[in-house]
C-alpha cells in the first residue's frame, strides 16, 4: 500500500476509534449519572436487539405462562448486556487507536487492548504514548463496571415497584372482563405516597367510575 494512503487510513481509523470511545463513555454517563431521563440511541439499539431475540423465543412457547417466564428475563438480561457492549465498543475503539499509532498488526493491537481493558497486564508495549493509553483504557473499563454496580440497587428498587403495580392488577386477568377487586386498587398507600394519584386514576378507569 502506498505510504500516503496508509497514513491517511491510519488517521481516519484513529479518529474513528476516538469517536467510538467518546460515544460509548457518553452513553454510559447519560444512562447512569445524568439526573434526568434521556434517550440514548446506543442503549436503545442494545435493548431492541435483545428484545428481538426474546420475542423469537416467546413465539416458540406453547402457553402464556411460558411466554411470561421468558419475557420476565428480558430486562435483567438487557441490563447486564449493556456493560458488555460498552466494554466491547471501548475495546474496539482502543484497538483502532493502537493500530493508528503503529503498534503492530490488528491481532497485536486487539491483544493489547483486551489486556488493558480487563486489567490483565499480559501484553506490554514499549511506546510511551501507547502505554499511557493502556492505562486510560484500564481506568475506563473499571469505570464502566463501577457505574453499573453502583446503580444496580436503584434499578432493582424501580423494578420492584413496577412488580408491585403489576401484582395489584393480576386479579383482573384471572376473572371476567372488568371484574376487578376495587378494594385492592383503593389501597394506594401500599405503593407509597408518591404513587397515590396514579393508582387512584387507575382504579377509577378499571372500575368504570
From TrEMBL:
The keyword Transmembrane applies. Keywords: Membrane, Transmembrane, Transmembrane helix. The chain crosses the membrane at residues 7-33, 39-58, 79-101, 132-152. It comes from the Bacteria. This is Two pore domain potassium channel family protein.
Amino acid at each position: 500500500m502506498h505510504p500516503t494512503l496508509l497514513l491517511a487510513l491510519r488517521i481516519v481509523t484513529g479518529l474513528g476509534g476516538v469517536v467510538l470511545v467518546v460515544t460509548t463513555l457518553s452513553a454510559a454517563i447519560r444512562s447512569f449519572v445524568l439526573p434526568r431521563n434521556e434517550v440514548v440511541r446506543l442503549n436503545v439499539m442494545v435493548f431492541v436487539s435483545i428484545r428481538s431475540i426474546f420475542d423469537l423465543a416467546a413465539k416458540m412457547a406453547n402457553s402464556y405462562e411460558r411466554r411470561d417466564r421468558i419475557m420476565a428475563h428480558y430486562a435483567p438480561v438487557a441490563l447486564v448486556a449493556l456493560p458488555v457492549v460498552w466494554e466491547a465498543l471501548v475495546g474496539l475503539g482502543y484497538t483502532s487507536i493502537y493500530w493508528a499509532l503503529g503498534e503492530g498488526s490488528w491481532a497485536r493491537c486487539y491483544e493489547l487492548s483486551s489486556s488493558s481493558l480487563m486489567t490483565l497486564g499480559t501484553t506490554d508495549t514499549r511506546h510511551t504514548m501507547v502505554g499511557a493509553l493502556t492505562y486510560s483504557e484500564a481506568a475506563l473499563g473499571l469505570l464502566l463496571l463501577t457505574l453499573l454496580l453502583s446503580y444496580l440497587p436503584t434499578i432493582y428498587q424501580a423494578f420492584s415497584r413496577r412488580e408491585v403495580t403489576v401484582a395489584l392488577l393480576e386479579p383482573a386477568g384471572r376473572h371476567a372482563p372488568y371484574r376487578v377487586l376495587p378494594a385492592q386498587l383503593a389501597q394506594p398507600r401500599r405503593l407509597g405516597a408518591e404513587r397515590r394519584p396514579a393508582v387512584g386514576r387507575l382504579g377509577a378507569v378499571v372500575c368504570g367510575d
